[in-house]
Every structure is written in C-alpha cells, then in structure tokens.
Amino acid sequence: MTRLDDSHTAVVAGPTRPWQLYDRLTSEDIDTIVRAYAAGAIQKDLAAKFNISVGSIRRILREHGYGRQGGRPGLDTVRR
Question: What is the DSSP annotation of 33-80?
Fold first, then answer.
C-alpha cells in the first residue's frame, strides 16, 4: 500500500504481521510443536501447520533440547 506523507512523498506501508517468532506463536503452540515432534511428527509438516519456516521449527526444537547431536529422545538407544 502506498500513501503520501505530509511532504507529499510516497511512503510504502509494510506488512502488519509481527516478524518475531515468539510474537506469532503462543506458548501452547510451542508446546504442541515440541510434543508433536517428540511423538514422531516431521518438521516440514509442523512448519506447514503453523505457517512458519522449517528453520523456525528447527530453532524451536533446538531451544528445547533437540539439537543436531541429540535427535529425538530414544533414538540413540535404538541405533546400537
């Protein structure tokens, strides 16, 4: 959307959607993501469901203990 300011200069209004991840998701959403992943959900499916990127899903999971080395709980005992 374009509008004119007081000096008659065109100003382009940006999106009103908040960009901070934790402004877009509730604590219940975060909990649901972590629990669903622990139960076997795929990151790509979670991203689509919550309308966020796979990178954002990875960030949430990493912040909740699912790092690259950690993987899902229980997988380290299965891979012996």
Answer: HHHHHHTT--HHHHHHHHT--HHHHHHHHHHTT--TTT-STTHHHHT-
